[in-house]
Amino acid sequence: MQRGFSLTTSMAFAVLIALICGLTLNGLLQLQTLGSQIRTVLEIHNRKIDLITKIQVAAHLRTDSLFRMALANDPFEHDAYFHEFNRAGFLVGSGRNLLRQMGLSAAEQRSFDTQTRLVNDIESVQKQVIDLLNAERSADARRVLVQEAIPLQEAFNQQLADMRNLYQQVNLTAQQQAQQTYQNTFLFTLALGIAAVVLALLIARHTLRGARLRSQLIREQMGELERSRAALREEATHDPLTGLANRRLFYDRLHQAIRHAHRYGGKVGILYVDLDRFKDINDRLGHHVGDTVLTEVAKRLTTNIRDSDSVARLGGDEFVMLLEAVQGRQDCLAAARKIEQSLNGETSFYGLDVEIAASIGHALYPDDGTDEDALIRAADAAMYRVKSGSESAQQHRLPFQ
Ligand SMILES: Nc1nc2c(ncn2[C@@H]2O[C@H](COP(=O)(O)OP(=O)(O)OP(=O)(O)O)[C@@H](O)[C@H]2O)c(=O)[nH]1
User: Fold this and answer.
1) β-pairing, 310-315 with 345-349?
2) Which residue out of 274, 276, 317, 380 is catalytically annotated?
């Protein structure tokens, strides 16, 4: 499941990265196209339009200076106009050269060729006018100018105007294309951007859900671990039948109580409780009744001591009790008496009358021993003395030792 989750997330991330790359690449390409279109519009076409205007002005100046030559009487004035005529001719020629060098489309080339033919025609008429002027036939020269040169000049102007319109039209088209490119880029970027954001949100949701599931699983596993640790702890320190502390835990508690008493100079009492003729109960009434008797004894032992004291089952029908902060033997005997009274007597289990009795011996720290083993042994021995005393008295209980 974990592998599948990571694979799906990785694939989604790969798609997201591809989307972002596509978005960036597309944006860059479209911007480049847009840039080149704008460059075409602003730089090339505007320069061409500029050149055409200059050619137009120079051509007009050339015809105009020819006219002035035809009207001028002063030879110096005549020369000055002739000089202007030549300079204008040079400007027309160089402008046209520049225009051609900038590169022409098929439509531009067609218009340029027409202009070339007109320029040739104009030049031949202008040459004719200059010849007439040199022959001092000004009236004929003016007539040729009006009848032939000016119509040709107007036709040339029209061609240039057409060419300028052509550029303006191309400019407009490029502008529209740029606008279209901008719109396409905007829509494409918007669509991809939305897709990328939606995908990112889906990935985030997926990842968060996975993380939540994982942390829930970890919490459950930790809870289970804690429960099994507690069960193990319970098992290691408690008797499974009665739920009382077992020998190990009792030794621990006794050890602590001895250390405490040793340090503060107190006493610790131990009661060793062994049921009488418990084997008979098992044999006569069955093991299950025996178990119930043991559980009932554990309950009675627990309810008849102080909260600060503790009870443990050592095994079989043997129990021990730890009495903390006792003043002396009298306290132990009083506790033993109380226990004995709570146990003695007939009780009904599974509808069967069972007589419970116990022999109880006691030991006192530090009087009967200074460590756990010595104290338990002493209490056990005391219990045996009580038991053998009660047996020799044929079921009659003797006072506790
Ligand atoms: N039902 C039950 N019986 C147990 C358990 N543990 C030990 N026993 C039995 O308890 C009995 C203890 O027998 P004994 O040690 O002879 O004790 P008793 O019959 O009380 O003898 P005295 O102490 O001499 O009076 C044996 O029959 C064990 O099998 C247990 O957990 N449940």
Assistant:
1) unpaired
2) 317
